[in-house]
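Following up on my earlier thread - several people asked me to post the actual chain instead of describing it. Fair enough. Here it is, all 128 residues.
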Amino acid sequence: QVQLAESGGGLVQAGDSLRLSCAASGRTFSSYVMGWFRQAPGKEREFVAVINWRAGITAYADSVKGRFTISRDNAKNTVHLQMDSLKPEDTAVYFCAAPLTSSSSSYLPRTKSGYGYWGQGTQVNVSS
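Reply from S.P.:
Thanks for posting it. Predicted structure:
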């Protein structure tokens, strides 16, 4: 069984920063890819960022490019999402996710179908 646990959400003002963390655990967890998605009320869950630390590559949604940074803490098996210059439209529940398998060494999925493990989510609220 694989568990993903997000933390770091909260209420901030526009222009502030937050850092989300996702800790992965489980005896069979060996993925080198993890992603972040978000879901605002009444909207579909959307891709935010993904990292493949084996290949050293990342990808971001256009809406967060230049403001958000995804990284991995190797020692703690944790992935972080640093969110700067937050906007009210960033308000959502943020989920981390990991694939069931990685189809290639450069695997970098940007859709929900590329992931099989999901965390419970952490709420981010950005006031104007």
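The mean pLDDT is 93. That should answer part of your original question.
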